[in-house]
Specification:
Blueprint (H helix, E strand, L loop, with lengths): L12 H26 L2 H8 L3 H28 L2 H21 L3 H33 L4 H24 L4 H19 L22 H32 L8 H25 L1 H21 L3 H15 L2 H12 L5 H8 L1 H19 L3 H4 L1 H6 L20
Helix pairs in contact: 1-4, 1-5, 1-6, 1-7, 3-4, 3-5, 3-13, 3-14, 4-5, 4-7, 5-13, 6-9, 6-12, 8-9, 8-11, 8-12, 8-13, 8-14, 9-10, 9-11, 10-11
């Protein structure tokens, strides 16, 4: 059954829980596919003969194309619904994963990553559009738990990547399996997405009346977070292998440790917001994340770096869901989907900065010190913490 726009009048809790589970599955699939691809970066480099500079170029390409995908998701959501945008986007990341695995040459690998990038951007926008609507229906903070399912997917994807590398499963076969799971789960979940359009007959375009200040403020938080997040997710495996001499089966555990910290942060974050308020949670999380990044930078052994990545995820991972929730509360309902799609572009600007700058440091043989970059940029989030002010229920002041 397809649910209407969630409002306080929607009282059938069984339907609401079913919708929450369906939307959560989309977050999980995004994390799973992303992890299954990026934690196998060393295999991609070896298979195609790509150096760190080439890998960086591909990642920047994905980030740029993802911004386009996010904009397209906003257009689809405005003209149809965020449910349609989310459903198509999930099918696209599955296709992208399959094409990455099957690509026979470097140029076709780039084409495959373009397809994947379009899907990534659309999924990121669509899942947050859907998530804030479900949170609105619940009347309390639950966005962090949605992003927690993204982290669960990331952990599963990292463990999967480590496993297939250990038993030498062909790269193409490993991603074909991921694509199949993505298509099956998303097809089953799609009928339960929130089928609501942002179109307002009183407006010629929701985007034209979009208040830009909250988009820019919370977009800055998203940019800084994803610069650190993408740098960690993309380069943590390479860092352990190349800088700390970890084995190919141990190196992906850095990614998994970061996602484990993110998991704890996000599943505990909603309760923390209800007890302390979002502004306090943002301040505490940012401080913990900085301690983790410092540990990564000075780590002498793989195990120390893995602990540092865990602490980094524990602190920083709460920032993104709270930023999307705060934006949704700060803009008119008729502009919500468009606002989320446009703010989500900061995600990919951050990805370019994080993945690109750390990658540039990697090509200069300074990968260990590349993580100083997020260490000095993350404190900017502390300047925006007051904008997250909420009551202890998680509602905006």
């Amino acid at each position: 059954m397809t649910l209407p726009l969630p409002r306080p009048t929607m009282t059938r809790m069984s339907d609401l829980r079913r919708t929450r589970g369906a939307v959560a599955s989309g977050f999980f699939l995004q994390g799973l596919v992303f992890a299954a691809i990026v934690t196998q970066a060393p295999r991609i480099k070896d298979h195609f003969g790509i150096d760190d500079g080439g890998l960086t170029a591909i990642l920047v390409l994905v980030a740029v194309v993802s911004g386009v995908g996010s904009v397209l998701a906003g257009i689809v959501a405005e003209r149809r619904s965020s449910a349609v945008a989310f459903r198509v986007a999930l099918l696209t990341i599955g296709a992208g994963a399959l094409l990455v695995g099957l690509a026979p040459s470097t140029p076709l690998l780039a084409v495959a990553f373009v397809v994947y990038g379009l899907g990534v951007g659309a999924v990121d926008a669509g899942m947050n559009m859907q998530g804030v609507r479900v949170q609105e229906a619940y009347g309390r903070s639950i966005m962090a738990s949605f992003h927690g399912l993204w982290s669960v997917g990331g952990i599963v994807g990292a463990l999967y990547a480590a496993g297939v590398a250990e038993v030498d499963v062909p790269f193409a076969a490993s991603l074909a399996a991921v694509a199949a799971v993505t298509w099956l789960v998303s097809t089953a979940a799609a009928p339960h997405f929130v089928d609501a359009s942002e179109r307002d007959p009183g407006l010629s375009s929701a985007g034209l009346d979009l208040p830009w200040r909250p988009v820019l403020v919370f977009g800055l938080v998203v940019l800084v977070f994803y610069a650190a997040d993408t740098g960690t997710l993309t380069w943590s495996t390479v860092y352990l292998e190349d800088a700390l001499d970890a084995s190919t089966s141990v190196a992906p555990l850095a990614y998994g440790a970061y996602q484990a910290g993110a998991l704890v942060s996000r599943f505990g974050g909603d309760l923390a917001v209800r007890r302390l308020g979002a502004a306090a949670v943002v301040t505490i999380g940012t401080s913990i994340g900085l301690a983790g990044l410092l540990t990564v930078v000075v780590s002498p052994l793989p195990v120390v770096a893995i602990v540092g990545f865990f602490v980094t995820g524990l602190g920083l991972a709460i920032l993104a869901p709270l930023a999307f929730a705060a934006l949704a509360a700060a803009v008119p309902p008729a502009a919500r989907d468009v606002a989320i799609a446009r703010m989500n572009i900061a995600n990919y600007l951050g990805a370019i900065l994080g993945g690109g700058l750390i990658g540039a440091a990697a090509t200069a043989d300074h990968l260990r010190w590349a993580f100083v970059i997020p260490l000095v940029t993350v404190p900017v989030v502390l300047l925006t913490a007051r904008s997250f002010r909420t009551t202890r229920s998680g509602r905006p002041v």
